Amino acid sequence: MLSYLHGFHAGNFADMHKHAALWLVLNHLRKKNKPFCVIDSHAGSGWYDLGSAQAAKTGEWKGGYALAKAASSSSDVPEMLKQYLDHVAAFDPTAKGRDYGVREGDEVDYTGPFYPGSPFIVREMLREEDELILMELHPREYDALYHRVKRDGRIHLHKRDGYEGLVAMMPPAIRRGLVLMDPSYDVKQDYQKAINATQRARERWPTGTFMLWYPILEDGFDAEMRNAFGAIKASGGVLAAEISCDQGGAKGRMRGAGLLVINPPWQFDQQLGEIGNWLAKTCKLPGPGKHTIKWLVAAE
Ligand SMILES: C[S@@+](CC[C@H](N)C(=O)[O-])C[C@H]1O[C@@H](n2cnc3c(N)ncnc32)[C@H](O)[C@@H]1O
Q1: Pair 259, 211: CB distance under 8 Å
Q2: Which of 5, 19, 25, 42 for mutating ligand 1's site (highest number of atoms within 8 Å of CB)?
Q3: How far, in Å, CA of 23 to CA of 69, rounded?
Q4: Residues 188-195: contacts with CB within 8 Å, 24+ apart?
Q5: Which of these, 150, 213, 194, 226, lies nearest to 6 by C-alpha position?
Q6: Closest atom of ligand 1 relative to the 15 alpha carbon
């Protein structure tokens, strides 16, 4: 059952945290003069109009991107986060000369501001020799994404189950890179599927960096995820980074979000620690925000 649409949530505090972490890994990958690949197993539709009815319905982006952007000229913003926020502010798929899938005759009235999802955060950082592999199952999200990336030869989009597809693609032809797994957790089985797929993919690609996003709700699944990842013997270590608050939101609402990262790049913990602390005090969570980073498995 696919009921989740990211357009309702794009740019919320959890997206800020996840996408800033993605930005850090991409910047690290770009440092070397060797190609990299990114596999985004749950891609969404690629980019989002924050002026849309969907975004207005929840208003979540106002407690995330809008607050972070408004505070981005203060002197204590971590440099890499500032770069990321500037990058988002400059993102406009309707700008002349950009081939981001805005078609003549589109019936949608885009208003902006716009927010790039993971596929377009990565796309903007790809060099000629790099590659992006996307998977998305929701028919409408897939269709939108298809038009948005179809002319870019560096991007390969599959209408395929992201858990099964990821394992089948391992190891990728380009052996430097990142797997981002960002499921919608529509059903509880997704937690176990995400754990299993990551474990199996990692066995076939032990040097890859893996980043799995998870929500923190009152159901305790976040602890299960941390326990499972704490048993992964990765030479580059495994860490959990969480932005959260102690009190729960309304029933079923997130009180936080986390990232499990296998083989994080050098100094990632320090950089994301600074960024997470800043986001936790700047963004709106259901209660006073905090950020924690914990190594579940130490790097060798
Ligand atoms: C949280 S959204 C992705 C957001 C995106 N990664 C970003 O950061 O912009 C999760 C997406 O996964 C898709 N999805 C759900 N189950 C899937 C599956 N088994 N395989 C591939 N995509 C799936 C949903 O349709 C949804 O678009």
Answers
A1: yes
A2: 42
A3: 16
A4: 188/221, 191/221, 191/224, 191/225, 193/163, 194/163, 194/225, 195/224, 195/225, 195/228, 195/229
A5: 213
A6: 8
Encode pLDDT of 114-141 as tens digits.
999 999 999 999 999 999 999 999 999 9
**Atom from ligand 1 closest to the CA of residue 44:** 27
The structure tokens listed for 159 are 């209408």
Give the CATH fold of the 6-297 domain: Rossmann fold (3.40.50)
Residue 121 is inside which H or E element, if any?
helix 118-123
**Cross-strand partners of 96:** none
Which residues are designated catalytic? 182
Give residue 152's pLDDT band: very low, low, confident or very high (50, 70, 90).
Answer: very high
H-helix or E-strand spanning residue 178:
strand 177-181
Alpha carbon 238 to chain centroid distance? 17
Closest by CA position to 240, among listed 21, 6, 20: 21
Averaged pLDDT, 19-40: 98
Say if residues 183 and 162 touch (Cβ distance below 8 Å): yes
From the list 260, 254, 227, the residue with the least C-alpha distance to 60 is 254
> Quick check: 12 and 67 in contact, CB under 8 A?
no
Query: Which pLDDT score is estimated for 104?
Result: 64
Degrees, nearest 5: CA angle 7-212-167: 105
Cβ–Cβ < 8 Å for 37, 176: yes
What distance in Å separates the CA atoms of residue 259 and residue 253, rounded to the nearest whole number?
18
Closest CA to 113 of 11, 205, 12, 25: 11
- CB-based contact 8:48 (threshold 8 Å): no
Ligand 1 center from residue 142 Cα (angstroms): 10
Backbone angles phi, psi at 216, to 5 degrees: -110, 110
* Beta-ladder partners of 37: 131, 177
